[in-house]
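Folded chain entry —
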Amino acid sequence: MDNTKAKTVEKALAIIEYLFKNEEAKGITDIAKDLKINTSTIQRIVNTLHGDKYLNQDPSSRKYKLGLRFVEISDSVLKKIDLRNIAAPYLRKLRDQTGETVHLMVLEDSMGVYIDAVESLQKNRVVTSIGTLDSLHYSAVGKAFLAFLPEKTVDDIIKTRGLKAKTCNTITDFFALKQNLIKIKKCGYSIDDEEGEIGTRCVGAPIFKHNGKIIASISIAAPSQRISLKKINDYVPLIIKTANKISNELGNKY
């Protein structure tokens, strides 16, 4: 690409970025003035972008805003994002930092499904098979998911799946679970204090996609003899930081 074409591409990108940052449509004169590019150049580039459906023009005001072509492109990019591959290095790092098993869960038909697990290297460790389906209300990774779903979705899941006791510590009361989820949403992490399995404690956190909606959750799981509630609190900053980094990789800037 020669220098002239490169400069044209730079200007086209500058126009796109400018319109992206401005919610209201902008006219040729406004764009030229704010970007300090001559009007004829702006008009030529805008005409090309408009012709290729990258820009829409309001018929009455003659002003421009980003077009549906960007929606098509972003949808294609998002579909190609592989959550498991993106999360994998962060899960391994979290396992190495804590020495414990780390899980990645997504939602499937009102159940949680483990799509990845990086196991602890210690002999006494939590082992979970990838692909395992599990109810959401008794695990840290599941409750982290429930806390950030729309309330109606949570109600539908509970209505469909119930609140079956997995251990004597499982929360089986609807209102008690709702209060727990409110607390989780406020603090940004969840705890499973032997609610899903006696002898296992976990701490979980949510992962969000580009639009701010939850897409997955992660957890650190360990034998309760090795991970006291105090130790879990030590892991909270680590799991929240890890979840936030994965969310950022998915385009979440909230």
About this structure: Residues 229-249 form the longest helix (21 residues). The longest strand covers residues 214-223. The mean pLDDT is 91. DSSP finds nine helices and eight strands in the chain.
